[in-house]
Amino acid sequence: MKVLVIGGDGYCGWATALYLSNRGHEVGILDNLVRRHWDNELGVQTLTPIAPIQQRIQRWHDLTGKSIDLFIGDITNYEFLSKALHAFSPEAIVHFGEQRSAPFSMIDREHAVMTQVNNLVGTLNLLYAMREDFPNCHMVKLGTMGEYGTPNIDIEEGYITIEHNGRKDTLPYPKQPGSMYHLSKVHDSHNIHFACRIWGLRATDLNQGVVYGVLTEETGMDELLINRLDYDGVFGTALNRFCIQAAIGHPLTVYGKGGQTRGFLDIRDTVRCIEIAIANPAESGEFRVFNQFTEQFSVGDLAMMVKKAGNAMGLNVEINHLDNPRVEREEHYFNAKNTKLLDLGLQPHYLSDSLLDSLLNFATKYQDHVDQNQILPKVSWRRN
Ligand code: NAD
Ligand code: USQ
Q1: Which residues pair with 252 in a beta bridge?
Q2: Pocket lined around ligand 1, Cβ cut-off 6 Å
Q3: Catalytic site residue from 141, 185, 307, 340
Q4: Domain NAD-dependent epimerase/dehydratase, which positions (predicted)?
Q5: In a 3-state reduction of DSSP, which class is residue 160?
Q6: What local confidence, expressed as pLDDT, does residue 29 receive?
């Protein structure tokens, strides 16, 4: 199948592009490289040294004989987007190309506006381009489990059946996101749902949990194919951060009580979930929602697991409970459904000692790249 991976220079996108290429799909990457620019602006770097996208793709070709088309540009620019789509003619579009950090979106007004304009306008342009010229193409859009927030009832996959005053309907599940970034995903979902209902487009919204890990079969093949691994207080995410902190002897940064519970998944499952979504497209007019995570953990439990794994490797790992820079529930009910991808054949890589060991070893290998000043969180959700 011809698959365009938007955001293919990023953490999930790069691993996905190579995985799909390896499985025989004809893959194109579209990216404006803005994530590399944001890193420079913040003065942070991924733990792992990532090569320029052109070199990455060339190396992939040299190693495997497989080609990946490259389109460098911004999907908020409709003319560029439309030209790229006509040049590639995708049957499926996997859309990772957004500003994805909650703290980044909460820095100030400018960053909130930038996040929402980038994410909403990009997705809206894509929907209009599909409506005009590619109405049969399947959009596979990365959403987030954070769209739901932490309600005191079970979280369903996108929709909930409600009985009200003697009548019954199945409606979009209520959303209570916790950052300007997470809000942008909710707004996207509404726009995509509208485009499916009104124009008959087909889309799958993958409400993904927090991704961890760095190695996939493909990105591990060569140093030049290495994936990014963020550890800083803005783009780094919980488990990846904890492993890198443990490796360099920094106390693990648990925010507040640490009872915050989220869905998590291994990056090897991210790439497989995308493959599954593409192989089983939504119907025309259908806005399909899958919850894409394999296990639930509280951040406190994750910190304990990393401490245990670190200790077993001879590392001295401390856990610090910092004042929570975010406004969020620190003790709450959380029970989210995730059966739709399993029903379609996902066989999860559950979090294991061996994965923690490999991530800790990876972090130890690149520990000299860590800037200790970038570890503590600096962005507050509260008004000063
Ligand atoms: P990332 O920042 O590593 O990659 C995103 C890529 O999109 C970057 O290469 C960036 O340059 C590109 N991009 C951003 N805006 C663009 C635009 N306007 N035009 C073209 N390219 C653009 O992020 P990631 O961690 O790979 O996340 C990918 C997607 O998955 C995001 O939508 C994110 O919300 C979602 N997601 C990520 C996680 C996670 O834990 N990393 C969890 C759940 C959902
Ligand atoms: N947390 C800590 N210590 C840290 C980092 C985070 O306790 O050092 C806590 C946070 O307070 C939060 C939880 O861990 O309660 C998750 O935070 P995170 O930074 O790991 O992830 P989050 O901000 O939710 O965002 C990430 C990705 C985002 C994706 C989301 C999936 O950056 O793109 O949408 O995970 S989800 O969390 O399911 O919404």
Answers
A1: 319
A2: 7, 9-13, 31-35, 74-76, 96-98, 100, 118, 122, 142, 144, 208, 210-211, 228, 237
A3: 185
A4: 3-291
A5: strand
A6: 99
